[in-house]
Write a structure and sequence with these properties.
Elements lengths: L7 H6 L3 H11 L7 H8 L3 H13 L3 E7 L2 E6 L4 H31 L5
Antiparallel strand pairs: 1-2
Helix pairs in contact: 2-3, 3-4
């Protein structure tokens, strides 16, 4: 994600590391990642990831999806009631944001109509 692009979660809930981690995992639900990859994909440092990881683990927001050797891969735990609510929130916020954009475009077109 580019610096100028913000997801609806980050836009509405802020740029906190936990929000960034959840947002990264939400946007990439089909795949699983190592902690290092999650930190990089979230745009946070590994130390920051480790600082907040226990909260994500204890609330069952993340789960181990695969283990090979010493490496564990993680995914968003979509079976968790907390994650289900986060997904619902994201969808609601995205719907609100899209309506705001449409309203903004309509008011711009009304003020500055395109000549025929």
């Amino acid at each position: 994600m580019q610096e100028t692009e913000k997801s609806v979660l980050i836009e509405y809930l802020g740029n906190h590391p936990i929000i960034r981690i959840i947002d990264f995992l939400l946007e990439n639900r089909l795949f699983d990642y190592s902690k290092k990859q999650i930190a990089e994909g979230s745009g946070i440092g590994r130390l920051t990831l480790f600082k907040y990881w226990n909260k994500l683990d204890k609330t069952n927001i993340v789960k181990v999806s695969r283990i090979f050797g010493k490496t564990k891969l993680y995914k968003l735990n979509e079976e968790s009631p907390v994650v289900k609510k986060i997904i619902e929130l994201e969808l609601t916020l995205a719907d609100m944001a899209s309506k705001e954009i449409l309203e903004s475009k309509k008011s711009t077109e009304t003020k500055h109509p395109i000549p025929a």
